[in-house]
Amino acid sequence: MHARKPSKDAARRFTGSKFIWIKDVARDHRVKPLACRVAVLLLDYINATSREAWPTQATLAEHAGVTPRAIRDGLKNLDATGHIVIVRNGYRRSNQYRPALPEWSPKAGKYLPAERTGRSSREEQPVRRLPNKIPYDSSQTPKPLSPEIRAAIGREMRSLAANLGPRNSGGSG
Q1: Strand, coil or helix: what is 84?
Q2: For strand 96-99 and strand 103-105, is the pairing parallel, antiparallel, or unpaired?
Q3: Given a cut of 70, is residue 166 above it in pLDDT?
Q4: What are the tens digits of pLDDT across the range 24-47?
Q5: Helix (H, G, I), strand (E, B), or coil: what is residue 74?
């Protein structure tokens, strides 16, 4: 069964709420410039019915011309300032991003601002982690290496460095 297509009025209100949201993001001095670019890119992915977006960070990075790490930093900034809520869906799965879009109030005849948490969504949605195969006991501290072992490691490292040869020497080759 397919979801019903929103009416023209609903579509206009949705578009209006996206414009108000992006203006709020742009006017917030706590939002970094790259995070503002990420917000603009998210506009294309927001679903009118669910009011969520779920592009991959790699897709956003490709469109922005930056690294996925830069996109993660931008998303974290938007999350920390309360402009989006990030719902993590696990390893190798696209996260969901819920922008704090204002809601249309027919009674008031205007858009009402969305509630913003201003805190990380990690408190709301725990990140699922892969189980550790080797249990780690933090009460055990590693023993220091003996002088003989340290000397052997040093010799091995010097040998490896000599076999690699000079790097970035600027010569021909």
Answers
A1: strand
A2: unpaired
A3: no
A4: 899 989 999 999 999 999 999 998
A5: helix
Contact 93, 83 (CB under 8 A): no
The whole-angstrom separation of Cα 159 and Cα 157 is 5
Q: Which amino acid is at 141?
A: T
Determine the straight-line distance between the first and last CA of the chain, rounded to whole angstroms.
Answer: 64
Residue burial 13-26, b: 16+ Cβ < 10 Å; e: rest: bbeebbeebbebbe
Tens of pLDDT along 133-146? 555 555 666 667 78
* Burial of residue 40 (number of CB atoms within 10 Å: 0-12, 13-18, 19+): middle
Cite the DSSP H helix spans in the chain. Answer: 8-27, 33-43, 57-64, 68-80, 147-164
Three-point CA angle 65, 23, 32, nearest 5°: 45
Separation of alpha carbons 122 and 91, rounded Å: 15
The share of the chain scoring above pLDDT 70, in percent, equals 71
Q: Name the pTM for this structure.
A: 0.61
Structure tokens at 136: 């780690």
